[in-house]
């Protein structure tokens, strides 16, 4: 298992290097010049040139990349062009809010998908399976932004049960913080719940037709034991893949959800950096999101090895 983990870790290094090149290059395609924003709309050409030199934008792009990569390797993501605040500190503050929203969305996804996927595969052909299929179809057809707006209209404006937007720390007002998390967590987690439900159901149905499951039942094992010890563990392998991808997307920042509910996470930070052409903040945020996604993928692969030892030797 240790050799398998080290091999997968080494394989992630080229991915991170190529990702840094893509991040740095794609950011430069954003229309607009940060130097003009810094110098102001009435700035003279000499002032714009001086601003570009101060920001290092007058150097060739490969030199800019080399300087930035050297800083990143040392753990320095630079400072914001607009306010001079360290990018790493900005990301750390916003990541806590995104992590909080991710936990809520993941909890919703698991609490919905596990019972629906398991029960619909066990009770095939009944009303529960048809109801599950309807929920899955609706969840994958409804756009996230529309669901978020609908939840705000119903539960905040009409029923007045929950606050419409905002975020506070649990250490300050735990009750209000929990109520503020409900709507964005439902919005973020509902789509993932339907995806996980569909994959869990199809995976369990496939595993239930395997010979070893028939053998376990022929030996007289209780149905609960067959499902937990033989079916569910093997059916979770493809589900772990989808769960890892969804978790990586959550941690990367759900831009739409954070915008609807005024949630101060990484998604909003990235949008603000795009609007202000703040290259260091945008580069640092996107690279952090990519790194987080790669780390989640690595953890997912290691989980494969735990669930199925055969994968370690491939």
UniProtKB/TrEMBL annotation:
SUPFAM superfamilies: MetI-like. The keyword Protease does not apply. CDD domains: TM_PBP2 (cd06261). The chain crosses the membrane at residues 12-30, 95-119, 131-156, 176-200, 235-261, 281-307. GO terms for biological process: transmembrane transport. The keyword Transmembrane applies. Keywords: Cell membrane, Membrane, Transmembrane, Transmembrane helix, Transport. It is a multi-pass membrane protein. Residues 95-300 form the ABC transmembrane type-1 domain. It is found in: Cell membrane. GO terms for cellular component: plasma membrane. It comes from the Bacteria. Belongs to the binding-protein-dependent transport system permease family. This is ABC transporter permease. It comes from Caldilineaceae bacterium SB0662_bin_9.
């Amino acid at each position: 298992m240790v050799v398998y983990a080290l091999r997968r870790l080494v394989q992630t290094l080229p991915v991170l290097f190529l990702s840094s090149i893509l991040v740095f290059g794609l950011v430069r395609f954003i229309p607009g010049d940060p130097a003009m924003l810094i110098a102001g709309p009435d700035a003279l050409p000499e002032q714009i040139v001086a601003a570009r030199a101060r920001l290092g934008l007058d150097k060739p792009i490969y030199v800019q990349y080399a300087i930035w990569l050297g800083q990143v390797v040392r753990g320095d993501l630079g400072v914001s062009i607009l306010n001079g605040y360290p990018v790493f500190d900005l990301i750390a503050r916003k990541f806590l809010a995104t992590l909080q929203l991710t936990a809520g969305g993941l909890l919703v996804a698991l609490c919905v998908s596990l019972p629906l996927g398991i029960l619909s595969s066990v009770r095939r052909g009944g009303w529960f399976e048809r109801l599950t299929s309807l929920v899955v179809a609706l969840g994958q057809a409804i756009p996230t932004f529309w669901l978020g707006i609908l939840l705000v209209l119903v539960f905040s404006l009409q029923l007045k049960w929950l606050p419409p937007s905002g975020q506070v720390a649990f250490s300050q007002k735990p009750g209000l913080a929990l109520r503020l998390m409900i709507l964005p967590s439902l919005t973020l987690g509902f789509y993932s719940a339907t995806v996980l439900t569909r994959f869990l159901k199809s995976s369990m149905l496939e595993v239930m037709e395997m010979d070893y499951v028939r053998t376990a039942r022929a030996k007289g094992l209780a149905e609960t034991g067959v499902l937990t010890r033989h079916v569910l563990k093997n059916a979770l392998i493809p589900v772990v893949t989808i769960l890892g991808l969804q978790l990586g997307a959550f941690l990367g920042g759900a831009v739409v959800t954070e915008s609807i509910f005024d949630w101060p996470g990484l998604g909003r930070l990235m949008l603000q950096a795009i609007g202000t052409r703040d290259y260091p903040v945008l580069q640092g945020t996107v690279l952090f999101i990519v790194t987080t996604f790669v780390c989640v993928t690595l953890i997912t692969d290691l989980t494969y090895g735990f669930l199925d030892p055969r994968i370690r030797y491939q």
